Amino acid sequence: MREKKTLPTDLAEKIDGVLREAGAKNREGNVSESIALGLSAWSLLPAPQEQWDFYPQIMSRSLVTKYAAVGDAAGVKQWIDTTYRMYDDPEHRDHLVLMLEGRSLYQLGLTGEAYDIFAKVHELYGREGFAGEDMSYLEFYLKERAQKEL
Hints:
With about 150 residues, the chain is mostly helical. It has two domains: about 1-90, Alpha Horseshoe (Serine Threonine Protein Phosphatase 5, Tetratricopeptide repeat); about 90-150, no CATH class. It has helices at about 10-25, 30-45, 55-70, 75-85, 95-105, 110-125, 135-150.
């Protein structure tokens, strides 16, 4: 994995301001405006975005979550692909990103696709990959797997 660069302070502060505003809109329940502000913040990142530390990873994950919240499957899929890129994970093996993808697909009702992601998590990380709040996804995965084996 390549060393990621730190954004210049003035640019980081500008992005922080937009992200604070996006967070406020999200807390107010205006997720669509929050997405628009998140995209605006994203556009401030110099290309290629994957060269930077922290901001691209956080922003891409946040956009996945927000697109899932508004039921936009195309947005989720676009930003999950971006998130894998920002984590320098072409093999799609990063636990954090895999679980984000699986949860988002499940939330959208795309349970077949979510199952496939959770199967990969289980294969790579076992039961430990579903610790804490993710235990319900392990239960879903095991139940679906048992049905498929019948």
